[in-house]
Amino acid sequence: MYKVLTLNKIAKPGLAELERFSEYSDKEASPDAIILRSYAMHDMELPESLAAVARAGAGVNNIPIDKCTERGIVVFNTPGANANAVKELVIAGLMLTSRKIWQGINWAQGLKGQDDVPALVEKGKAAFGGNEITGKTLGIVGVGGAIGTLVANAAVALGMKVIGYDPYISDKARGVLSPEVQIAELDAVFAESNFITLHVPYNSGTKHIVNAETLKACKQGAVILNFARGELVNDADIKAALSGGKIGFYITDFPNGELLGVDNVITVPHLGASTEEAEENCAVMAAVQLKDYLEKGVIVNSVNFPTMAEREPVKSDKRLCVAYNAEAEQDVLAGVKDILAKKGCEFTLDSAVKGKAGYALVYVSGGDSSALDGAVKQLPGVLSARVI
Ligand code: MLT
Protein backbone atom coordinates (compact mmCIF):
# COMPACT_ATOMS: atom_id res chain seq x y z
CA MET A 1 0.00 0.00 0.00
CA TYR A 2 1.19 3.53 -0.76
CA LYS A 3 1.17 6.23 1.91
CA VAL A 4 -0.74 9.46 1.35
CA LEU A 5 -0.65 12.57 3.51
CA THR A 6 -3.92 14.55 3.56
CA LEU A 7 -3.32 18.24 4.26
CA ASN A 8 -7.00 19.25 4.17
CA LYS A 9 -10.34 17.63 4.74
CA ILE A 10 -11.00 15.51 1.65
CA ALA A 11 -14.56 14.64 0.56
CA LYS A 12 -15.63 11.08 1.40
CA PRO A 13 -15.76 9.71 -2.18
CA GLY A 14 -12.16 10.90 -2.58
CA LEU A 15 -11.15 9.09 0.61
CA ALA A 16 -12.84 5.95 -0.73
CA GLU A 17 -10.65 6.21 -3.86
CA LEU A 18 -7.54 6.70 -1.72
CA GLU A 19 -8.41 3.58 0.26
CA ARG A 20 -8.19 1.53 -2.92
CA PHE A 21 -4.42 1.96 -3.15
CA SER A 22 -3.14 3.65 0.00
CA GLU A 23 -3.18 4.21 3.69
CA TYR A 24 -3.92 7.87 4.18
CA SER A 25 -3.48 10.05 7.22
CA ASP A 26 -3.10 13.72 8.12
CA LYS A 27 0.03 12.82 10.09
CA GLU A 28 1.97 10.64 7.63
CA ALA A 29 5.66 11.60 7.92
CA SER A 30 6.99 9.69 4.88
CA PRO A 31 4.27 9.96 2.26
CA ASP A 32 4.53 8.80 -1.34
CA ALA A 33 1.94 11.45 -2.17
CA ILE A 34 0.13 14.46 -0.75
CA ILE A 35 -3.49 15.38 -1.44
CA LEU A 36 -4.70 18.85 -0.48
CA ARG A 37 -7.11 21.66 -1.16
CA SER A 38 -5.98 25.14 -0.09
CA TYR A 39 -3.30 24.24 2.51
CA ALA A 40 -0.31 26.57 1.92
CA MET A 41 2.65 24.30 1.21
CA HIS A 42 5.22 26.99 0.51
CA ASP A 43 6.91 26.87 3.91
CA MET A 44 6.68 23.13 4.24
CA GLU A 45 9.72 20.85 4.13
CA LEU A 46 9.03 18.42 1.28
CA PRO A 47 9.50 14.83 2.54
CA GLU A 48 12.26 12.80 0.83
CA SER A 49 9.73 10.07 0.05
CA LEU A 50 7.37 12.38 -1.87
CA ALA A 51 6.65 11.43 -5.51
CA ALA A 52 3.43 13.33 -6.22
CA VAL A 53 1.12 16.11 -5.02
CA ALA A 54 -2.53 16.36 -6.04
CA ARG A 55 -4.53 19.56 -5.62
CA ALA A 56 -8.24 18.88 -5.35
CA GLY A 57 -9.11 22.09 -7.20
CA ALA A 58 -7.85 24.18 -10.09
CA GLY A 59 -5.52 26.83 -8.59
CA VAL A 60 -2.05 25.63 -7.59
CA ASN A 61 -0.63 28.87 -6.18
CA ASN A 62 -0.54 27.24 -2.71
CA ILE A 63 2.01 24.67 -3.95
CA PRO A 64 5.74 25.33 -4.51
CA ILE A 65 5.69 24.15 -8.12
CA ASP A 66 9.30 25.03 -8.99
CA LYS A 67 10.61 23.27 -5.90
CA CYS A 68 8.54 20.20 -6.75
CA THR A 69 9.77 20.19 -10.36
CA GLU A 70 13.41 20.42 -9.21
CA ARG A 71 12.81 17.37 -7.05
CA GLY A 72 10.98 15.44 -9.78
CA ILE A 73 7.71 15.56 -7.84
CA VAL A 74 4.68 15.48 -10.15
CA VAL A 75 1.99 18.03 -9.24
CA PHE A 76 -1.58 17.43 -10.40
CA ASN A 77 -4.70 19.59 -10.34
CA THR A 78 -8.29 18.85 -11.29
CA PRO A 79 -9.27 21.21 -14.11
CA GLY A 80 -12.98 21.34 -14.75
CA ALA A 81 -13.99 19.28 -11.71
CA ASN A 82 -15.42 22.30 -9.93
CA ALA A 83 -16.15 24.43 -12.99
CA ASN A 84 -19.92 24.11 -12.81
CA ALA A 85 -19.98 25.25 -9.18
CA VAL A 86 -17.90 28.31 -10.02
CA LYS A 87 -20.06 29.05 -13.09
CA GLU A 88 -23.20 29.03 -10.96
CA LEU A 89 -21.69 31.48 -8.48
CA VAL A 90 -20.58 33.76 -11.31
CA ILE A 91 -24.17 33.82 -12.60
CA ALA A 92 -25.29 34.67 -9.06
CA GLY A 93 -22.63 37.41 -9.08
CA LEU A 94 -24.12 38.89 -12.25
CA MET A 95 -27.53 39.02 -10.58
CA LEU A 96 -26.14 40.43 -7.34
CA THR A 97 -24.37 43.25 -9.13
CA SER A 98 -27.02 44.16 -11.69
CA ARG A 99 -29.64 44.65 -8.99
CA LYS A 100 -29.08 45.79 -5.41
CA ILE A 101 -30.23 42.44 -4.04
CA TRP A 102 -27.51 42.10 -1.39
CA GLN A 103 -27.90 45.67 -0.18
CA GLY A 104 -31.70 45.30 -0.17
CA ILE A 105 -31.55 42.09 1.87
CA ASN A 106 -29.26 43.76 4.41
CA TRP A 107 -31.62 46.75 4.62
CA ALA A 108 -34.67 44.51 5.08
CA GLN A 109 -32.94 42.63 7.90
CA GLY A 110 -32.39 45.97 9.62
CA LEU A 111 -36.18 46.52 9.77
CA LYS A 112 -36.54 43.79 12.38
CA GLY A 113 -38.49 45.03 15.39
CA GLN A 114 -40.12 47.97 13.56
CA ASP A 115 -43.90 48.32 13.17
CA ASP A 116 -45.60 47.46 9.90
CA VAL A 117 -42.60 46.01 8.10
CA PRO A 118 -44.57 45.31 4.86
CA ALA A 119 -45.40 49.03 4.55
CA LEU A 120 -41.79 50.04 5.25
CA VAL A 121 -40.60 47.57 2.61
CA GLU A 122 -42.89 48.99 -0.04
CA LYS A 123 -41.84 52.53 0.87
CA GLY A 124 -38.12 51.86 0.97
CA LYS A 125 -37.60 49.42 -1.86
CA ALA A 126 -37.13 52.10 -4.50
CA ALA A 127 -33.55 52.51 -3.25
CA PHE A 128 -32.70 49.01 -4.40
CA GLY A 129 -33.72 48.91 -8.05
CA GLY A 130 -31.40 47.74 -10.80
CA ASN A 131 -31.07 46.55 -14.34
CA GLU A 132 -31.54 43.29 -16.18
CA ILE A 133 -28.58 41.36 -17.57
CA THR A 134 -30.35 40.34 -20.77
CA GLY A 135 -28.95 42.37 -23.64
CA LYS A 136 -25.90 43.49 -21.67
CA THR A 137 -22.33 42.60 -22.64
CA LEU A 138 -20.30 40.16 -20.58
CA GLY A 139 -16.53 40.17 -21.14
CA ILE A 140 -14.68 37.03 -20.12
CA VAL A 141 -10.95 37.11 -19.50
CA GLY A 142 -9.89 33.48 -20.00
CA VAL A 143 -12.89 32.39 -22.06
CA GLY A 144 -11.25 29.15 -23.25
CA GLY A 145 -10.80 27.54 -19.84
CA ALA A 146 -13.12 25.04 -18.19
CA ILE A 147 -14.93 27.76 -16.22
CA GLY A 148 -14.76 30.44 -18.92
CA THR A 149 -16.53 28.27 -21.49
CA LEU A 150 -19.31 27.31 -19.07
CA VAL A 151 -19.85 30.93 -18.00
CA ALA A 152 -19.88 32.09 -21.63
CA ASN A 153 -22.52 29.58 -22.71
CA ALA A 154 -24.70 30.19 -19.66
CA ALA A 155 -24.56 33.95 -20.25
CA VAL A 156 -25.52 33.50 -23.91
CA ALA A 157 -28.47 31.37 -22.75
CA LEU A 158 -29.49 34.24 -20.46
CA GLY A 159 -29.58 36.60 -23.42
CA MET A 160 -26.27 38.36 -22.88
CA LYS A 161 -23.83 39.37 -25.58
CA VAL A 162 -20.54 37.63 -24.74
CA ILE A 163 -17.03 38.59 -25.80
CA GLY A 164 -14.00 36.73 -24.56
CA TYR A 165 -10.24 36.97 -24.49
CA ASP A 166 -7.95 33.95 -24.40
CA PRO A 167 -4.59 33.84 -26.13
CA TYR A 168 -4.32 30.10 -25.41
CA ILE A 169 -7.78 29.02 -26.53
CA SER A 170 -7.78 25.48 -27.93
CA ASP A 171 -9.78 24.19 -30.90
CA LYS A 172 -11.62 21.96 -28.45
CA ALA A 173 -12.70 24.98 -26.37
CA ARG A 174 -13.77 26.86 -29.50
CA GLY A 175 -15.87 23.83 -30.42
CA VAL A 176 -17.56 23.84 -27.02
CA LEU A 177 -18.26 27.59 -27.00
CA SER A 178 -21.57 28.83 -28.32
CA PRO A 179 -21.03 30.30 -31.83
CA GLU A 180 -22.46 33.56 -30.50
CA VAL A 181 -19.40 34.13 -28.29
CA GLN A 182 -16.99 36.56 -29.94
CA ILE A 183 -13.26 36.18 -29.36
CA ALA A 184 -11.61 39.57 -28.85
CA GLU A 185 -8.45 41.27 -27.67
CA LEU A 186 -8.08 42.06 -23.97
CA ASP A 187 -8.45 45.82 -24.59
CA ALA A 188 -11.79 45.27 -26.34
CA VAL A 189 -13.06 43.07 -23.51
CA PHE A 190 -12.39 45.84 -20.98
CA ALA A 191 -13.67 48.64 -23.24
CA GLU A 192 -16.89 47.05 -24.50
CA SER A 193 -18.30 45.11 -21.55
CA ASN A 194 -20.86 46.00 -18.92
CA PHE A 195 -19.62 43.08 -16.80
CA ILE A 196 -16.08 41.69 -16.85
CA THR A 197 -15.40 38.30 -15.28
CA LEU A 198 -11.94 36.82 -14.71
CA HIS A 199 -11.17 33.15 -15.33
CA VAL A 200 -7.40 32.91 -15.59
CA PRO A 201 -4.90 31.37 -13.18
CA TYR A 202 -2.80 33.68 -11.02
CA ASN A 203 0.84 33.86 -12.12
CA SER A 204 3.46 36.53 -12.84
CA GLY A 205 1.79 37.28 -16.20
CA THR A 206 -1.72 37.74 -14.82
CA LYS A 207 -0.94 39.53 -11.54
CA HIS A 208 -2.96 42.79 -11.39
CA ILE A 209 -4.45 42.22 -14.84
CA VAL A 210 -7.15 44.55 -13.49
CA ASN A 211 -5.29 47.78 -12.74
CA ALA A 212 -5.61 51.55 -13.10
CA GLU A 213 -5.02 51.38 -16.84
CA THR A 214 -7.45 48.56 -17.65
CA LEU A 215 -10.06 50.10 -15.33
CA LYS A 216 -9.70 53.45 -17.07
CA ALA A 217 -10.58 51.75 -20.36
CA CYS A 218 -13.82 50.31 -18.92
CA LYS A 219 -17.31 51.63 -19.60
CA GLN A 220 -18.71 53.98 -16.97
CA GLY A 221 -20.32 51.87 -14.24
CA ALA A 222 -18.88 48.54 -15.44
CA VAL A 223 -18.83 45.65 -12.99
CA ILE A 224 -15.81 43.45 -12.23
CA LEU A 225 -16.37 39.86 -11.09
CA ASN A 226 -13.43 37.97 -9.62
CA PHE A 227 -13.98 34.31 -8.85
CA ALA A 228 -10.45 33.36 -9.94
CA ARG A 229 -7.78 34.72 -7.53
CA GLY A 230 -7.55 37.92 -5.46
CA GLU A 231 -4.12 38.83 -6.83
CA LEU A 232 -5.51 39.36 -10.33
CA VAL A 233 -6.94 42.70 -9.20
CA ASN A 234 -5.00 45.66 -7.85
CA ASP A 235 -7.05 46.49 -4.75
CA ALA A 236 -5.93 50.13 -4.47
CA ASP A 237 -6.76 50.76 -8.13
CA ILE A 238 -10.19 49.17 -7.98
CA LYS A 239 -11.04 51.08 -4.80
CA ALA A 240 -10.12 54.32 -6.55
CA ALA A 241 -12.22 53.37 -9.59
CA LEU A 242 -15.18 52.49 -7.35
CA SER A 243 -15.02 55.71 -5.37
CA GLY A 244 -14.89 57.78 -8.56
CA GLY A 245 -17.90 55.87 -9.96
CA LYS A 246 -16.01 54.51 -12.97
CA ILE A 247 -16.67 50.99 -11.71
CA GLY A 248 -20.15 50.22 -10.43
CA PHE A 249 -19.44 47.09 -8.41
CA TYR A 250 -16.62 44.73 -7.62
CA ILE A 251 -17.67 41.28 -6.51
CA THR A 252 -14.82 39.10 -5.30
CA ASP A 253 -14.52 35.59 -3.89
CA PHE A 254 -11.28 36.69 -2.18
CA PRO A 255 -12.01 39.17 0.63
CA ASN A 256 -9.16 40.85 2.47
CA GLY A 257 -8.88 43.63 5.06
CA GLU A 258 -8.59 46.27 2.34
CA LEU A 259 -11.87 45.31 0.71
CA LEU A 260 -14.20 44.61 3.61
CA GLY A 261 -16.69 47.39 4.24
CA VAL A 262 -15.83 49.27 1.03
CA ASP A 263 -18.92 50.67 -0.72
CA ASN A 264 -19.98 48.65 -3.75
CA VAL A 265 -17.58 45.80 -3.03
CA ILE A 266 -19.34 42.49 -2.45
CA THR A 267 -17.12 40.04 -0.64
CA VAL A 268 -17.88 36.33 -0.87
CA PRO A 269 -15.78 34.06 1.39
CA HIS A 270 -14.16 31.90 -1.37
CA LEU A 271 -17.30 29.88 -2.01
CA GLY A 272 -16.77 29.35 -5.76
CA ALA A 273 -16.14 25.63 -5.48
CA SER A 274 -17.89 25.06 -2.18
CA THR A 275 -20.60 22.69 -3.29
CA GLU A 276 -20.87 19.07 -2.28
CA GLU A 277 -20.75 18.06 -5.93
CA ALA A 278 -17.60 20.05 -6.73
CA GLU A 279 -15.76 18.92 -3.60
CA GLU A 280 -16.55 15.31 -4.41
CA ASN A 281 -15.59 15.62 -8.09
CA CYS A 282 -12.28 17.29 -7.22
CA ALA A 283 -11.39 14.79 -4.49
CA VAL A 284 -12.16 11.76 -6.67
CA MET A 285 -10.28 13.15 -9.66
CA ALA A 286 -7.23 14.04 -7.54
CA ALA A 287 -7.17 10.61 -5.88
CA VAL A 288 -7.57 8.72 -9.19
CA GLN A 289 -4.74 10.73 -10.76
CA LEU A 290 -2.47 9.88 -7.81
CA LYS A 291 -3.40 6.19 -8.05
CA ASP A 292 -2.65 6.10 -11.79
CA TYR A 293 0.70 7.76 -11.27
CA LEU A 294 1.82 5.74 -8.27
CA GLU A 295 0.64 2.39 -9.59
CA LYS A 296 1.20 2.77 -13.32
CA GLY A 297 3.42 5.82 -13.90
CA VAL A 298 0.64 7.42 -15.96
CA ILE A 299 0.36 11.25 -15.84
CA VAL A 300 -2.91 13.10 -16.47
CA ASN A 301 -3.50 16.76 -15.59
CA SER A 302 -0.07 17.57 -14.24
CA VAL A 303 0.85 21.24 -14.07
CA ASN A 304 4.61 20.63 -14.12
CA PHE A 305 5.23 17.35 -16.02
CA PRO A 306 4.00 16.16 -19.42
CA THR A 307 1.00 13.93 -19.98
CA MET A 308 1.95 10.26 -20.22
CA ALA A 309 -0.61 7.70 -21.32
CA GLU A 310 -0.34 3.98 -20.72
CA ARG A 311 0.81 1.84 -23.63
CA GLU A 312 -1.56 -0.93 -24.59
CA PRO A 313 -1.17 -3.87 -24.62
CA VAL A 314 1.38 -3.63 -21.84
CA LYS A 315 3.71 -6.51 -21.12
CA SER A 316 6.47 -5.87 -18.63
CA ASP A 317 7.87 -7.10 -15.33
CA LYS A 318 8.48 -3.62 -14.00
CA ARG A 319 8.05 0.01 -14.91
CA LEU A 320 10.70 2.65 -14.48
CA CYS A 321 9.49 6.24 -14.08
CA VAL A 322 12.11 8.91 -14.69
CA ALA A 323 11.62 12.64 -14.21
CA TYR A 324 14.36 14.73 -15.75
CA ASN A 325 15.51 18.13 -16.76
CA ALA A 326 14.27 18.69 -20.34
CA GLU A 327 17.56 20.32 -21.37
CA ALA A 328 19.37 17.08 -20.57
CA GLU A 329 16.84 14.86 -22.35
CA GLN A 330 19.14 13.25 -24.90
CA ASP A 331 21.82 12.38 -22.36
CA VAL A 332 19.31 11.13 -19.80
CA LEU A 333 17.51 8.86 -22.25
CA ALA A 334 20.80 7.55 -23.65
CA GLY A 335 22.00 6.91 -20.08
CA VAL A 336 18.80 5.06 -19.14
CA LYS A 337 19.01 2.87 -22.24
CA ASP A 338 22.66 2.13 -21.55
CA ILE A 339 21.93 1.07 -17.95
CA LEU A 340 19.08 -1.19 -19.10
CA ALA A 341 21.18 -2.75 -21.85
CA LYS A 342 24.04 -3.44 -19.43
CA LYS A 343 21.59 -5.13 -17.08
CA GLY A 344 20.35 -7.30 -19.95
CA CYS A 345 16.81 -5.91 -19.76
CA GLU A 346 14.41 -5.60 -22.68
CA PHE A 347 12.48 -2.37 -22.65
CA THR A 348 10.07 0.00 -24.38
CA LEU A 349 10.54 3.66 -23.56
CA ASP A 350 8.01 6.48 -23.92
CA SER A 351 9.08 10.03 -23.17
CA ALA A 352 7.68 13.54 -23.34
CA VAL A 353 8.61 17.07 -22.34
CA LYS A 354 6.60 19.95 -20.91
CA GLY A 355 8.45 23.24 -20.50
CA LYS A 356 11.58 22.54 -18.48
CA ALA A 357 10.49 19.09 -17.32
CA GLY A 358 10.77 15.73 -19.03
CA TYR A 359 9.35 12.36 -18.11
CA ALA A 360 10.01 8.84 -19.33
CA LEU A 361 7.93 5.75 -18.63
CA VAL A 362 9.92 2.63 -19.38
CA TYR A 363 8.40 -0.86 -19.57
CA VAL A 364 11.14 -3.26 -18.48
CA SER A 365 11.28 -7.06 -18.90
CA GLY A 366 13.87 -9.70 -18.11
CA GLY A 367 17.52 -9.14 -17.18
CA ASP A 368 18.61 -7.89 -13.80
CA SER A 369 16.21 -5.10 -12.97
CA SER A 370 17.28 -4.78 -9.35
CA ALA A 371 18.42 -1.35 -8.09
CA LEU A 372 17.46 0.28 -11.40
CA ASP A 373 16.18 3.43 -9.78
CA GLY A 374 19.39 3.92 -7.81
CA ALA A 375 21.50 3.61 -10.96
CA VAL A 376 19.28 5.96 -12.99
CA LYS A 377 19.24 8.58 -10.21
CA GLN A 378 23.02 8.95 -10.64
CA LEU A 379 22.63 10.21 -14.21
CA PRO A 380 23.17 13.99 -14.57
CA GLY A 381 19.85 15.73 -15.31
CA VAL A 382 17.70 13.09 -13.59
CA LEU A 383 15.34 14.66 -11.03
CA SER A 384 13.75 11.48 -9.70
CA ALA A 385 13.51 7.80 -10.58
CA ARG A 386 11.09 5.21 -9.33
CA VAL A 387 10.49 1.54 -10.08
CA ILE A 388 6.98 0.13 -9.94
C1 MLT B 1 -9.96 26.35 -7.23
O1 MLT B 1 -8.81 26.78 -7.30
O2 MLT B 1 -10.27 25.24 -7.66
C2 MLT B 1 -11.01 27.16 -6.56
O3 MLT B 1 -10.56 28.42 -6.24
C3 MLT B 1 -11.57 26.49 -5.37
C4 MLT B 1 -10.54 26.08 -4.38
O4 MLT B 1 -9.61 26.84 -4.10
O5 MLT B 1 -10.64 24.98 -3.88
Short description:
The protein has 13 helices and 16 strands. It has helices at residues 12-19, 65-70, 83-98, 101-109, 117-124, 146-157, 171-176, 186-192, 212-216, 235-243, 276-296, 329-342, 372-377, and strands spanning 2-6, 22-25, 33-36, 52-55, 74-76, 137-141, 161-165, 182-183, 195-198, 222-226, 247-252, 265-267, 318-325, 346-354, 357-365, 382-387. The strands form three sheets. It has a seven-stranded parallel β-sheet with strand order 8-7-6-9-10-11-12, with helices on both faces.
Count of DSSP-assigned helices: 13
Q: Roughly what percent helix?
A: 25-40%
Strand content: 15-25%
Q: Summarize the helix and strand pattern as letters.
A: EHEEEHEHHHEHEHEHEHEHEEHEHEEHE
* Rounded Rg: 25 Å
Please state the average pLDDT score: 97
Tell me the quaternary state: single chain
> Which molecules are bound besides the chains?
D-malate
| Secondary structural class | alpha/beta
Terminal residue distance: 12 Å
Q: What's the shape?
A: elongated
